[in-house]
Specification:
The chain is of the alpha+beta class. It has a single domain, classed as HIT family, subunit A (2-Layer Sandwich), CATH 3.30.428. It contains 3 helices and 5 strands, in the order αβββαββα. The N and C termini lie far apart (31 Å). The relative contact order is 0.22.
Length: 131
């Protein structure tokens, strides 16, 4: 059964796409823990990140690194935190989270809401730099 991420990759569900190549996709999380929270996913449907072939896993991380550098320049933060939890959606993914403190990585924090305009504006800025 296709995951929500597979449907996003197929274009069946819209997303705030910030970067893409032939094997990976990065988009803003619609339920972010902080502004700029970005998901990086492989385009192959695989449940567990450590079941990925080594070369593909390496590519995913290098792709995430590129996104993280630009994200950190566009969203004020001390660092871009990285998390791989893998329980929310059965499709491997990396969370890139702009953070001021370690507590910003907690998924138990109340989820802030951001306007569609703010999300679109950040998407446009990131996308223009990650082409």
């Amino acid at each position: 059964m296709p995951t929500i991420f597979s449907k996003i990759i197929a274009g069946e569900i819209p997303c705030y796409k910030v970067a893409e190549d032939d094997r990976c996709l990065a988009f803003l999380d619609i339920r972010p823990v902080v502004f700029g929270h970005t998901l990086v996913i492989p385009k192959v449907e695989i449940n567990y990140i450590f079941d990925m072939e080594d070369e593909y896993l390496a590519h995913l991380h290098v792709f995430a690194k590129r996104v993280a550098h630009v994200l950190g320049e566009e969203v004020p933060c001390l660092r871009i935190g990285v998390m791989v939890a893998g329980l929310e959606v059965p499709h491997a993914h990396i969370h890139l989270i702009p953070m001021q403190a370690i507590a910003d990585l907690s998924f138990t924090n109340p989820r802030p809401e951001f306007s569609q305009e703010a999300m679109q504006e950040l998407t446009a800025r990131l996308n223009s730099r990650l082409k």
